[in-house]
Amino acid sequence: MTGALWAIVAGVGFGIFQTLNRRAVHGMDVFVATFMQLAISAGVLIGISVLTVDISPVWTASPSTLIYFALAGLLHFFIGWTFLNSSQKRIGAARTSALIGTTPLFAAVISLFTLGEVPSLYGIGGMLLIVAGVFVTTNPLARPADGEPTDSQKSGRWIALALGLAAPLFWAISPTFTRLGLQGLHSPLLGVTIGMIASTLCYAVAIGVRSLRTPIGAISMDSIVFKVAAGVLVGLSTWLRWIAIDLAPVAFVIALTLVSVPTVNLLTPLVVDHKVEQVTATVWGGSLLVVAGSLILTLTG
């Protein structure tokens, strides 16, 4: 398979993961859901690493290399996935998926301020489309049907928007540390596995401390089944994405994996109760604007 096909398969996998994950987090505590997701994905990536690559370079890698991979994992998985699950539980998988598509926007802004890389006119146009898509998808200024929004409704909308955008923000920052780590250990699979393990261990400590003050509530078997399936799928999709990056330009892979957005919009109504998740024409419109803007920004910016 070519890099393009691997990227598309990974994107579809991420889309299915987000759909199954939405069903799971509906009946789970966000932090417990994230820890399960990390632990399952770590197991999947460890297994793939042992079976497919030589893991001996890990034992001879410099401490700084391991730290860089660990930091990349903490930003992407520990923090990013927590915001992903929080956003899905608050505003649903479809709206969250659209907001996740803004990752290229944050990457462009970060590059502007850290590397002085000014986007082209096409890139600026893509950025404006992304902003428009975010506004359409999660308009925090919209009025409810029964009149003016209350203060709590207003603050809740802005919190929901912040949660949805926080994940792609941290996902745009993490590659900086990944690149630093790859300078000392040129194995994307081992690097992402190290980051996943570090995140899982840190989350185990955090969830243990939290449970001393906030007991973990009951979890339905339905949620556990869907969370296990989602964890396995996101671990496999992460691996496939790295295969694609090894075979094709990063920007091209990022663009193709945006197929996850329409995948979520199509599958979520089939998996999640429509009373919990509604994929409206507005959500579709906003999603398409975000995807279009991200494609323009990624491929021409």
H/E topology pattern:
HHHHHHHHHHHHH
Q: How many domains, in number, for the residues?
A: 1
* Overall 3D shape: globular
Per DSSP E runs of 2 or more residues, the count of β-strands stands at 0
What structural class results from the helix and strand content? mainly alpha
Classify the beta-strand content into a percent band. under 5%
Helix fraction? over 70%
Low-confidence stretches: none
- What assembly state would you assign to the polypeptide chains in this entry? single chain
Give the number of helices. Answer: 13
What is the mean predicted local confidence, pLDDT? 83
Instruction: State Rg.
Output: 19 Å
3D architecture notes:
- The protein has helices at residues 3-25, 30-52, 57-60, 63-91, 93-100, 103-115, 121-137, 151-182, 188-213, 221-247, 250-256, 260-271, 281-300.
- The protein has 301 residues and is an all-alpha fold.
- The chain has one domain (3-300).
- The longest helix has 32 residues, at 151-182.
- The chain is globular, with a radius of gyration of 19 Å.
- The model has no long low-confidence stretch (mean pLDDT 83).
